[in-house]
Fold this protein.
Amino acid sequence: MSSTQELDENRVDMPDMVNRDPNNMNFHARTLFEDVIGEPDGAHSADCVWKNSYGCFTGGKNCCYTVLTYVCALPLALCWGCTFACVTFAHIWQVGPCYRVVQINMSCAQKFFGTCVHCVCDPCYESMSLLLSNIRVLSGNSTELNQYQAGGGVSKELANLPEKSDHIA
């Protein structure tokens, strides 16, 4: 193994120090002055107030955020890293196998249920389809409807259909 390969394998990936939110996960948490405070037309403060407000807001936010990150970021990063390690472990060693057991058992139940439904429902659906297969819906002008009624309620096409005795058990 060459020394270059050893260096590549031992190298720890470092985070992007410029773009620290490459997936825009915290787009909703924008806290720039312009994202938080805005004066509409007709309600402007004096220029010196606006400029100093910007400085106070930005300086206070940056100072507070810096102190909080020094005090809390490392312990919280450790806690969240451990939390996600536990979640990953649980999904790999508990949730995944349990889900597979449920899939196996439910496929058997699905076959039983499907057989029961086919045995009970299929004959009913077949009978209803045979009963309802000769229903005709007339749409059109009143002349067609009058011809239908004059023929005793049975259209010529329907009256000339052969009997379907092969479907009757």
In short: The mean pLDDT is 84. The helical segments are 3-10, 33-36, 47-132, 142-150, 156-159.
